[in-house]
Every structure is written in structure tokens, then in C-alpha cells.
Amino acid sequence: MSSLAVIDVHHAPKANVIQPAWVRIMHWINAVAVILMIMSGWQVYNASPLFSFSFPPAITLGSWLGGALLWHFAAMWLLMVNGLFYLVCGFATGRFARKLLPITPSGVMADTRAALTFKLPHEDLSKYNQVQKLLYAGIIVVGIVIVLSGLSIWKPVQLQYLTALFGGYDFARYVHFACMAAICAFLVVHVALALLVPKSLRAMIIGR
Amino acid sequence: MARKRPLLIPGVDKKLLVKDAAKLMPDFTRRRFIAAGASLGALTLLTGCDVSDGFSAEEMLKQISKFNDAVQARIFNPNALAPTFPESAITKPFPFNAYYDLDDAPEVDGKDWKLEVRGLVDNKKSWTLDELYKLPQVKQVTRHICVEGWSAIGSWTGTPLRDFLKLIGADTSAKYCWFQCADAEGYNSPLDMETALHPQTQMTFKFADQILPRAYGYPMKIRVPTKLGFKNPKYVISMEVTNDYKGGYWEDQGYNSFSGS
Question: B84 — contact with chain A (CB < 8 Å)?
């Protein structure tokens, strides 16, 4: 009797919760931070564009370079502190290993094909398919690279070995930009799929 | 360092333009910023500042920028040298950049010019250019990084500022060297003492082995390879050693004051 009760207590809620509270909280803090970083970053980019285009001022943040830098160097703390906690929790709880591994090329190919023909099942939201695993693991790596390349642009003297690792100051700017582009591409797919499978969005808000 | 880039198109009313731009900025973005500001507000707690009297996103950003000044002062390693480059890496032509056009750049007469020295120093004598030229000089080829993002490698020759500070008996426990410049609007900028004493911080008299041309700050520029370009004042006319934070041309408009690289 008592052992049954214990089993109930431990398993019943776990089976229901798809996204634990810490994941949800950090996800939405990260969402805010990333949007602030991207929009202020676009305004910073406009002061000295790397390519032959600028971002329309209406979708940037800060209204001029000085304002954008204030936002960028404020939101970076939110992004970095939250991101660091997320990485620690992800590894410490075993969530990364459990949810994101293994990723195999053949699995990714098969699930991509299934996704494109709308044959990919979404019944069990607690298990990621191979495409999700690849994208979620990939965006974590991109997140780490964008922070490190950003630090190397911010502190090319104090962190000069990091800057050198990114191919020097000028090249690090391109790395930083490419990571931003990758995150934007991820966001398009990520948001579109969340809207296509609304229960996944619900799980990220209320947990189940 | 172009100023708040005026979106000027000939024949277009500036005020109308601003109104239109404000309309273009969707309301939700503004609201989202404020919402974001509320959660970011927790960060200001780290600075120990009281934000209870009148919360605004702008005030919060200012406080975080001050916090970032403190963080950067901690990160700053007085012994870390900015990377140096071979002469072949020098950017040609080296860009001219200021809030004014080159035609409006100060035209200083070197014969009349004197560097005024004020504040916490033993010897407050003003220095003529000839007197300064007699001080030992060193050359450095370093990367100039603009707050706008671009960078360029240049060659600067002059006297290490720390040698000059020693010579004039400056109180190096003071917080800042504050520089004033000859341009019409009175460019000025504070330099924290730790950076002023950095071995590569230089009173520059030459660019690419030639007497500093007008474009790059004749007769004297302060070259600080551990700071962003706007913290490298040109056309310098005075230096004050002080414990007071006296603000700066760009710093007052919102650029982070420490702006170390």
C-alpha cells in the first residue's frame, strides 16, 4: 500500500509535466533577452553596416547608436546570466542528455523527410524528434558562440586571445552577425511550428 | 563618430520626419521594452541604486551603464597590452571621423597653441609644442576601434602619458584625467587614471611618422588603444587631473563612459 502511494506521488505529476518550471521561466526570460539583443543589435549594425543593407529603423531598438548600445549592454546581462543558469541546469539535471541525445544523421534525414510530408507525429510532446533535437542542440551552440563572439568584440584587448580565436576583431563581427542570422532563421521555424502545434506552446506556458 | 545621425533629406521638414518615424514605431514595441525594462530592473539592484523615485527605462539603462563602467574597470588589466601590428597592416587611407566634417575641423596654430595643465598637479605650467616635442617619444601601431563598429590600424608616435604625468607631478591617485579640445562645441572626455597610466596611452604628436595632420587632431591627440575611438580626444588644449567626474561630449549623450576595449 505505502509503496504504491510513493510510486503515485513520484510518477503521476511527472508524466503530465512536459516542460518543468525552470525550463519555462528561463525560456521566456531568454525570449525577452534575445529579442532585445537582436533589435538593439540591428541598430548598432546600422552605424557601420557589414553588408550593403541596413535594418529599417522601425524594427530596431534604441533610436540611435548610443541608445541601442545601452540596451545591448543591459540585455546582455539578462541573456548571459539566464543562459548560464540554463546550461548549468540542463547539464546538472541530465535534461540535455535525455532530451537532445542521441542525434544521428540517418535519424535527422528520416525525420526531415517525415516533417516535410507532414507525417511527423506530435502526440508525445515530451519526446523530441531528430529534427527538433538537432535544432535545439544547434541553437544552444549558436547561443554560446554569439555570446563569446560578442565578448570578443566588446573586449578585443582584455580578451584578445578570445578575439584571436574568432579570427581577429573584424572577423569576429561577421561571426557575431552570422549567429544572429542563424537565431533569426531558427526563430522563424520555431515560432511557426509552435503556432502549428499550439499544445507545444501551451506546454511552454503552463507546463503540460 | 557621427553624431545622432540626422536623417536629413533636403527639402524635408525635420519635425514631420520625426513624427512619421514615431508613428512607424509600433506601440507594442514600446510596451514590450517597458515590460522588458521591469524584469531588467532587477539588475539595477546589483548597482545598489535607488530606482524607486521615478522608474523609467532610460534611468534604468543609465544605471546599468554605470554598473558596466564598474565591471569594465574591474576587468581592465593595467598590464595587458593592446595587440600591435606591422607597418604593412596600417589602414590606408586612415578614416577621418568626427561629429563635424573635415572642412570644419579645428585649425590650430601650433605657434600659439599651449597645453594647459590644471588640477591635482605640482607644476601647472602650460606647455608649448616645442617643449612637448623635446620629450622622449615612442611609436605604436595599434588598432583604433570606433564605437560604430569599424576599425582601422594606424601608427601613432608620441610621449607616454604616464611619463608626462610623472614629469608634472600629477596626483596619480586621482580618479581622472579630463581633456578639453579646440573644436567649436568644446569636445571633452574623461579618462580614468588606471587607463591614463597604461603604458600604451600616449600624447600623440605624429601619425605615420609625420607631424599629426589636421584631420587626426593637430597639434596633439590622446591615443588610448585600450578604449573606443571617441575616448581618444583630438585637438587637445587642456588636461585636468581631478577626482570629479566632469562628463564628456559623447558620454553625456549616452555612450558608455568607460568604453574600454
Answer: no
